Amino acid sequence: MTTTNSPSSKSKASSSTTAAASSPSPPTAEKGVVIGRLTVTLTCCQPFKVLNGGVSALIAESTASLGGYVASGYRRVFGVQLSTNHIKPAMLGEQVEAEATPVRVGRTIQVWEVQIRKIDPSTSSSKVLLSTSRVVLLSNMEAPKEMKEYEEKIKKYARL
Amino acid sequence: MTTTNSPSSKSKASSSTTAAASSPSPPTAEKGVVIGRLTVTLTCCQPFKVLNGGVSALIAESTASLGGYVASGYRRVFGVQLSTNHIKPAMLGEQVEAEATPVRVGRTIQVWEVQIRKIDPSTSSSKVLLSTSRVVLLSNMEAPKEMKEYEEKIKKYARL
Amino acid sequence: MTTTNSPSSKSKASSSTTAAASSPSPPTAEKGVVIGRLTVTLTCCQPFKVLNGGVSALIAESTASLGGYVASGYRRVFGVQLSTNHIKPAMLGEQVEAEATPVRVGRTIQVWEVQIRKIDPSTSSSKVLLSTSRVVLLSNMEAPKEMKEYEEKIKKYARL
Amino acid sequence: MTTTNSPSSKSKASSSTTAAASSPSPPTAEKGVVIGRLTVTLTCCQPFKVLNGGVSALIAESTASLGGYVASGYRRVFGVQLSTNHIKPAMLGEQVEAEATPVRVGRTIQVWEVQIRKIDPSTSSSKVLLSTSRVVLLSNMEAPKEMKEYEEKIKKYARL
């Protein structure tokens, strides 16, 4: 899974091609958003050729954790609780987009909302909600020194 | 992870002491249990070399869905809701075991509990709880005909 | 709390057959919203004089169930799953507002989101998020005949 | 509901410093259990004369919080997340019993499981599961001085 971003959003942390963590206008962690896209392949389908609901949960936990890591100033976060409501299925071959938005960025606890939507390449405006998740993170733990390299990588993509 | 798909896995969709949804002794769906094992590799770790919490959720959804599929008599199930509480981390290289147990097997709604534990190969008795999940399934939808092959495969493993 | 039972509350339950919360376009069940207000009294506080988090959950389940009942055309609904994330505390004496919004109104399953916010009577624009809940309902069960009276009462408050 | 406040309830809140729910071996906080009983009256029913699912959630949050308060050595706890799965309904007039058990008592985060069961006064062995909840608490915050009186009250009941 990778992440991309819409220039109109404020701060964004993305891993693949674009994105940001602190914008020219005074950035706040509350505004950080993580966006990622995924094409539904057989690997992430259950036997009925539908996106495995657990993959939606995995995407939610991953994007929220990345966002929480950036929002806490590149300190370590731990997932505490994850709740996912599956709304509609995504079929093999379809494209989905995950957007993680902070609900609350506290010193100890962060709560993120992650919505996964089906995107229609021909009509970018149409985005059907597939699932909605809430992720609770315990934040602000010290990151081990060997994570400095990872931090630099994320910072590169989480550009202004 | 779809545990029963890989013959090398220790998967069983079985009841407490004997067997599966079609055992000689009067089987009840309520007794069906799905067990799967996983070694924590880099693929399923987050950057801190700890098992990605989203992978625990994925395992929970997958094992519960498999159990629900068997418990409903090989009819289609849909994941509706997934809640995962992360209790302790698992490190790179460690072995984990997931056990999905039915809380309620209703005609329309099934609820499964999935516990993931760390197993110590040297002392099989020690099993530290890593996460506990609740999975809500909408069950009893008709399975498409082309799933007959999958059904046969599951039935083969769902017997001791 | 069953918001529409007390005439003093600001409740409105809108559905497809009635009208949505302020929509000029043809209303649909998806647009129905249930709103209720509550003053934090000692009865709903935990011993630390803070709104009991369980009361927030109770409000969420109640408003979502009322909305689901209306959205399904006054048929019976059952709560299946409730997830509440507590964001900030509300203190004794403060006023809170709950808003239940449908995420999906399916034939069998409904998912509602309920946000509870603190309202400042002096500046109605300021609304701090206190909690956010997701409620899963099993819908469309037949309502017993003796519920006709209740249906009429709700219909009166579920005004256009 | 704060079960241990009413002497008529069968509540016991046991902790490491006091005593566990019937354990001959040295008790630990992990073994602390909170039990409360409730008769389903009209007050806690939804309009269909069934126990309001939100009341189950309220009971879960309350019993878990009480347990967490004791388990942390009478320090303040905050509810962070609550997940409730409703399994079966309880009808007007029936008796229910809630049992809160710690899943993990950490320094910062506690996770409690609360099961609510229907009890049949004539056959005390029959206990049908009505709901199962998971409560996440942020623990170990300093309790205000004026809570000393409450602490003493709880300590009185938190002993067999």
Short description:
Chain A has helices at 53-71, 148-157; strands at 2-3, 34-39, 76-86, 95-105, 109-120, 123-141.
Write structural notes for this entry.
The structure is a homotetramer of 160-residue chains. With 160 residues, chain A is of the alpha+beta class. Chain A has one domain: Thiol Ester Dehydrase, Chain A (Roll), CATH 3.10.129.10. Chain A is built from two helices and six strands, in the order ββαββββα. The first copy, chain A, has helices at 53-71, 148-157, and strands at 2-3, 34-39, 76-86, 95-105, 109-120, 123-141. In chain A, strands 1-2-4-5-6-3 form a six-stranded antiparallel sheet, with helices on one face. In chain A, a hairpin with a 2-residue loop joins strand 5 (109-120) and strand 6 (123-141). Chain A is elongated, with a radius of gyration of 15 Å. Mean pLDDT of chain A is 80; it is low at 1-30. The interface between A and B is medium-sized, with 29 and 30 residues.
Main attributes?
homotetramer, 160 residues, alpha+beta, elongated
pLDDT below 50 for ≥5 consecutive residues: which ranges of chain A?
A: 1-30
Structural class label of chain A: alpha+beta
Which CATH architecture of chain A is right? Roll
CATH topology grouping of chain A: Thiol Ester Dehydrase, Chain A
Tell me which protein chains meet in the greatest interface and how many residues each side has.
C-D, 30 and 30 residues
- Overall 3D form of chain A: elongated
How large is the radius of gyration of chain A? 15 Å
Helix content of chain A: 10-25%
InterPro entries (chains A, B, C, D): HotDog_dom_sf (IPR029069), PAAI_dom (IPR003736), Thioestr_dom (IPR006683)
Biased composition (Low complexity) (chains A, B, C, D): 1-23
Keywords (chains A, B, C, D): Hydrolase
Organism (chains A, B, C, D): Ananas comosus var. bracteatus (red pineapple)
